[in-house]
Amino acid sequence: MIKKAVIPIGGEATRLRPLTIETSKGLVRLLNKPILEHSILSLARDGVEEVYLGVRGYVNYTTLFDYFREGYWLKKKYGLEKEVRIRYMPRYESTTNGDAVWYTMRYYDIKEPVVVIQGDNIYQLSLREMYEWHRKKNAFMTIALQPVNDVTGFGVAKIDDDHRIEYFVEKPKPEEAPSNLANTGIYILSENFWEFLEEDWAKEMKENRRLDFGGDIIPALIEHGYDVYGYPMSGYWFDIGTPDRYLNAAMYLLHHLSPEDMEAVEITHDVYMQGKSEMSEDLRKRIRDMIKRGEVLIEGKALLGRHISIGKGTVLEDAIIDNYSMIGENCEILHSVIMDRAKLGNNVRIINSIVGRHVEIGDNVRIVNSVIGDNAVISDNVRMYNVKIWPHEFVENGASLENYTVRHTAPKR
Ligand SMILES: CC(=O)N[C@H]1[C@@H](OP(=O)(O)OP(=O)(O)OC[C@H]2O[C@@H](n3ccc(=O)[nH]c3=O)[C@H](O)[C@@H]2O)O[C@H](CO)[C@@H](O)[C@@H]1O
Question: Which ipTM score applies to this complex?
Answer without folding.
Answer: 0.93
